[in-house]
Amino acid sequence: MPFNILQRKPKNQNFFVLEIGLERVTCAIFNKEDSQLKLAGVGRKKFSSHEDIFNSSIEALDALSAIVPDIPEKGILGISGGSLETITTIARYERPKATKPIDHKETEQVLNQVIENLDKTNKKIFFSTISGAKIDGVSVTNPLGLRGQKVELSCFVAFQSEVEVELLNRLVGEIEIDVKKMLPTSFSVCKILEQKEVKNALLFRVGLAKSEITILEEGHVSDIYPFDLGMNNLSYIQFAWEAALKDIEKEHAPSLIWLLADNDEAELEKLKEELKSYDWQSKINIPINPKVEIVSSVHHFSVSDITLYALAQEGTTNEDS
Length: 321
Description:
Blueprint: E1 12-20, E2 24-33, E3 36-46, H1 53-67, E4 74-79, E5 85-94, H2 104-116, E6 123-135, E7 138-140, E8 150-161, H3 162-175, E9 178-184, H4 185-194, E10 201-206, E11 211-217, E12 220-227, H5 238-245, E13 256-261, H6 269-277, H7 280-284, E14 291-294, H8 306-320
Parallel strand pairs: 1-4, 4-9, 10-13, 13-14
Antiparallel strand pairs: 1-2, 2-3, 5-8, 6-7, 6-8, 10-11, 11-12
């Protein structure tokens, strides 16, 4: 009599992603089956002001519920634009025990000390992380488990105004989602950009009236800048990248500019031509002409879903950790 071997079903998890974009709220549900991510449904709603975000989020959730009635309890929240403000602080120190591996407790203590010394007047920190490191002069992405004496940790911190944080807390309470992680969306998108093995780059997310520039230095996010300039202000949009890059060191000049549309109405070909024809050397003293690319599909996810895919990766990391 043959034995029936028990076939285990793949572990199936699902989670909710809410993204507050520059001009649009997007809700999505992802199913995770082993290592595969599948988009189960999406709901979207535009907004034109900060005051609209709450109602637009509820409407986007209603649209999603019509497709997938069962909304997961756990979720990831991505933030773009608005009062978003970021800072990267380099914490330098010498370790008394150079042969001891760096652990999470050590990096957390350094990050907390940096946070303690930051000016938090009228704003709240919603995300912080070690975005990169140098150990004895060697750049590394993740210092955990490594040994060394002289350490430099890049401590990335993101703030929002107290008013916007309170609105998000009210929204999360209304939709009854257990937010496991809240972070700048562009921080997640840049992890996809890092896979292109570009050390210094610029992610330029653009809507009709707003945009956001994220600067990647030495392979990690250093700053994110929101602007009230978009495709409707094409004659003036150069002021956005000039402001974002005004203090950049020459060795960190971007070799690549990645253009990402915030919504389907933002057609980026004209902006691509503006960037390609811009005189970087004479206007802002950048010695190279960066390559300009418009973001295409990633891992079978369309352009309009790339931010969701990037945030979903955070969801899988969170579940696995």
